[in-house]
Design a protein that fits this description.
With 167 residues, the protein is mainly α. The relative contact order is 0.09.
């Protein structure tokens, strides 16, 4: 199942009723048995462990944790500042949004919004940074026989004055 989750949006599967997800369980069951060569009597939970398949909730919890670092993301408020929690408490048959569904798991791992270090996107992309250009080819022009100690020292010390802006 998690292979399907990774390729077709596991976070979206989280908003589906559990009865619909149970329809996919036989597909996962059969696929794991074929891949692992297991018997029909092998428990599905053991097959998932052998196949290194994470639980369905893992991907959505990871998404919530990643989303918590960027408060400028448009989805941040709908996950962490959900204002419709009360309406979903009154209507238990409706599937609640991601923030409400994953809140108990996030609390169980000890997640606190105040402890999150927020990431910021730099205003200037790294590809625009100024790279110093070599200005003195004196050392490269000299032949090996012409390179004395003083000429070599001069060739390395001279360019330092040109680049004092970068230090």
């Amino acid at each position: 199942m998690s292979i399907m989750d990774r390729t077709r949006g596991c976070i979206v599967y989280g908003s589906v009723r559990s009865s619909y997800l149970r329809m996919l369980d036989p597909v996962q069951n059969h696929t794991l048995r074929l891949c692992l060569g297991a018997y029909r009597t092998s428990p599905l939970s053991r097959l998932c462990i052998l196949a290194n398949e994470p639980p369905r909730q893992k991907h959505s919890i990871q998404y919530c944790l990643k989303l918590s670092t960027s408060s400028h993301n448009p989805a941040y408020n709908s996950v962490f500042n959900c204002k419709v929690k009360r309406s979903f408490e009154l209507k238990p048959n409706q599937v609640p949004p991601l923030g409400i569904r994953r809140q108990p798991e996030l609390q169980a791992v000890g997640f606190k919004k105040k402890d999150v270090l927020h990431c910021s996107v730099p205003s200037k992309p790294p590809c625009v940074e100024v790279i110093p250009k070599p200005r003195n080819f004196f050392f490269a022009v000299l032949r090996k026989r012409q390179k004395t100690y003083y000429k070599t020292k001069f060739a390395f010390v001279l360019p330092i004055h040109n680049y004092n802006v970068y230090s």
